[in-house]
Every structure is written in structure tokens, then in C-alpha cells.
Amino acid sequence: MTRLFGTDGVRGLANGLLDAQLALRLSQAAAVVLGHREVPDGTRPRAVVARDPRASGEFLSSAVEAGLASAGVDVYNAGVLPTPAAAYLVADLKADFGVMISASHNPAADNGIKFFARGGHKLPDEVEDAIEAELACEPVRPTGDGVGRVRRFADAEDRYIVHLLTTLPHRLDGLTVVLDCANGAASGCSPQVFKDAGANVIVIGAEPDGININEGVGSTHLEALQAAVVAHGADLGVAHDGDADRCLAVDHEGNVVDGDQIMAILGIALKQDGRLREDVLVATVMSNLGLKIALREAGITIRETAVGDRYVLEEMRANNYSLGGEQSGHVIFLDYATTGDGVLTGLQLAAQIAKTGKPLKELAAVMTRLPQVLINVKGVDKSRVKEDDGVRLAVAEAEVELGETGRVLLRPSGTEPVVRVMVEAADEETAQSIAQRLAAVVERRLSLALNDTESVRPA
What we know:
The chain is α/β, with parallel strands linked by helices.
């Protein structure tokens, strides 16, 4: 049976895989696993529920709240807020768990449900499995005064904004910032917090109508932000995704500053201030080799994890590291947040510009981003990518060719029959050539159209 939970909660087409009935039952199951099993008898568990502005979030949040209340959980409806705000509020309210309804950077037709445990932490696989197993059980059905109550969490956004402002190492007075809120969950709070921090703020992508989330705007579509930064002569641009757990940036010339560069800037700044614990930064295997080189030169060790901010967070929590993240812009400040926070990251980056008086382009130059080529090879048996002799030989030859000036990474997709071939090299032409060569080997060796005999022939 296919596991219901993916790498970041339950996600799919709203009213397709993810309908009101599933939302209701998931909530009832979570009420047992995260609520009743964790609180003293006779005490009603409490949960924070938030969502992004997708139209489907309206009926899904109603179903989630109904499921929780019917299972004896008191619900605090926080309305439209970023995912990291929901996580923060679970901890701030000392709630027993939280629910975020969002499909992040996905198109508006999709939606998702993710849960946070007490303290605002993402769930480990075994807890998600327990919730999934509970779906097969009869729901808890209290009556009378045992049913949960649903109330509006009226000051939820204000609490989050105040929290963000307390993290600022330097005010943003004098900076002009363009914010692209992806017509998503940060459309209200991100402009407000940047203004409160002293910045002159220009806003795009902050008119959500339920169906325009991530549509041509946000961290997956940076063209509008690049144009706006240049047109307004701004110091920088900050782009969020639909649920605002990530941040990408644009310098005053319109050049993209990705998550790796942001981590390099902030990691080095934290080390200089004595606030980078163990002088370690946590990143995934997909981070650019240029990040590792820049950190090494700054006396910072990089710890690598599998792809996914949950794995970055697990490594950080296990060793109490203070900073980590992904190239895609999920950056985690463990001193201030329990998950990636795009608004927090944008604030910290802008504060570093204001503090140093240096333009973002100069700060980003601390890291030289090596050319990186990624090819998705479809229709292959991804389970054999690490064991096929022909693929391993081709990778070994590529690694010898690249030497210390590049690297190769072959990674099976977690959701589809795809192998991701990533090559970094000193120049774009070499990266493209080697990536295409390896992709051809993977396609030839692992094609699902081949029988077993054909697939094990030498390359």
C-alpha cells in the first residue's frame, strides 16, 4: 500500500486525493495520536489551525476543524498565515499540536495538510505512520462537554510579527525592499513586518484571490521581482513561495541570490558574531559545491543531509546547530524557528545589508556559484541506480574527469520514476556535456522498457 504521507505531509489535488472526507478523518486520527495520547485524562487537547489563501483551503480548513472538534480537541483558528507562523504559534500558545493547510509552491489546484507536534516541530516518520494507522480505527466521539470548541485566534498574526521583530540584529532604516509574496500566505504579514523594521517597502504578488497563488510570481517565478527591483532602484528583492517557508533574493542589479548564497552570507556573519554553534552549517547534498568552498575558507564546516528541509532540521536538532537549509531557499534559524521561515530569512538578510552598508551583490560574492546542471531522466527503474555496474562506472569516470573542480550526484526521485542527474563543473559547457552523457547512460541502462537481461549488459 502506498504511504499517504509524503516528504512534507499529505499533498495532492484538492477534491481529488485530498477531499473533505480525508481531511476530516486525518484530523480525527491526529487528535488521537498527537492529542489524547499526549495529554492527561480529562483534559481537552488544543490545536492551532492555519492555511494559505487557496480557495480549497476554505473547505479543507472547515473539515479539519470539524474533525478535531468532533474528536474532543479545542481549535484555535489562526486564518491565513505562513507555515512557519503556524509552527511558531503552536509553541507560543503551548498548544498540543498544529495543522497547516497548504501545498507550498504547488499550483492553486493542489493542497496539502501537514501537522506539527508540541513545540512546533515537524513529525518524524513513525508518528506520521501512527496517524495513518489510526485512520483504520473508529474515531473518538465524545459528547456533551467533551466535544472541542472552535475559536478565532484573533492576535495570531500580531504575535508572529512581534516575534520576527525581536530577532532583528539591526533595523532596516534607509533600505528599499521589493517583496514578492507569491499571492500567498505572507501577503499580509511580510509587508507589515518589513515596514515595522524600518524599510521602504514596495509590494508585488500580494493580492491573493484564492486561485492566483504562485501564478507567475514568487520564488519559482523571479522575473517580475527582478524587473521591479531594477525599475524602483531598490536595494534588494525578497521572494516567498505560497506558504512563505522559503526565501530567494535579488540584488540591486536584478541578479538572483539563491538559498546557498543566502546561507553563505548569514553563516559567515553568524560566525563573526560568535553565534554559529560549533562553526557548522547544515545543508543538503544538492547544495552547490561553491557553498562548501566558501564556508571552508571562512573556517566553517558543512554537514550534508538528504534532500528535504526535514532532514536538515533533524540534523540540526540532534546536534544543536544554529543554521541550515536548502538551495531552494528553505533556511532554518534554530534559535528563532522550528522550520524554514522565508520572512525571517528575508529580514535577516536585509539586516545584514543595513548593518554592513554593503550591497547584496558584494555580500553574495563571498561565494562563487559553480555551474550546476540538473537533468531528470524519466521512465527508468530508479531503484537500481546505485547498484548498476554500468552507471557506477560512468559516474566514476566523470568524477575522475572533474577532479576537485566539480562533482556528480545521481538521486532517485521520491515520488516518480525519475533519476535526477546533477553535475557541477568549473564551466557550464563541461557540466552540460558530462550531465548529458550520464543521463544517456542512465536512460540506456535503467530503462523500464528493457528486460532484465538487457538491463545488465555492460555499457
